[in-house]
Write the structure tokens for this entry.
Amino acid sequence: MSERTAEQVTSELFEALGASLDVSVVLENAYPLLSRLISADYGALGVSSSGKVEDFAWSVAELPPAFFVAYEEMAAHDFVRESVVQRPNLVLRDQDMVPRARLEGNLMYRRAREVGAPIEHVMAVMLHADQRWQSGLSLYRARRRPFTAVERARLQRVTPALSNAVRNCHLLGVAAEWRRALERLLDSSEAAILLMTEDGREVARSARASRLLERWFEHEGNAAEPLPAALARVFESSRHSGETGAVRIKSADVGLEASFLRMPTPYGQAAWVLHLEERPLDLALPEPWRASLTAREQEVTRGVLRGWDNRLIGSELGCSTNTVKKHLQNVFAKLGVDDRAALLVRASRAKRR
């Protein structure tokens, strides 16, 4: 697959991940696109609402459900989860997890062969892990053809969006009713949602949604027409078609993704949810910086330009967050910037030049 095609498929995948708040629908829509980016024979998304291994619920693609029927007894032998849980949000291949001999002697490996779904190679990532809930994605190959470094990089790039999609689905799934879920989201400092009636009137919005709308559409929207024109057009199209609508808006160094989702169950007068998500755009490391920064400092800086936090950079580079902070302090000093925001601005200006 060419890089241009990969970029197009990645863009379509981002839209699919934001197109529903039902994790099974998300997987159904996103997995075919993910399969175009990364060739795999089967995939599995596991979510444990309690954080306990025995409570994992599995959504699978092309994998016999029988494989996970006895998962509780196999859990102690799950070398994939054992590896990725130690390094959340970092994509690992089987060669990063266990030696080949140990893989072939593993109970899960043998169980997969018994049910007719051999797993000769696996690539996986833990999307979220704490005491309350966990989620992870695994891709499998049935023949001896290892996942490549390019495929690993592609999955790593979409991991933040995958994690966000599963997290949003989980936030709604843990609530017994839509009302409770929406009230949680409206009160959340992280969620950016706006509830609307069928004819486009605003019912409620979260504080983060207000901040994003003001930042991106400072002089648009009023009491009569609360939605900016760019979003209103997408909403009208969604309302008439009854389907999810999405739009991506870009500035120099950051993008805004907006999705309109019809509620399966009304919340008072509200029938639609507008979900907003702001994401940093990938920025290349400016050529003049290479002469000033060490190889390690360049790697850390590239992580910042991809929108990664210190923990993810540390996981990717195999070092502690304190080490990442020290590298960043050196980077800031050498480039004459005060913080991450100033670094992104400087890189964005270099890109425009």
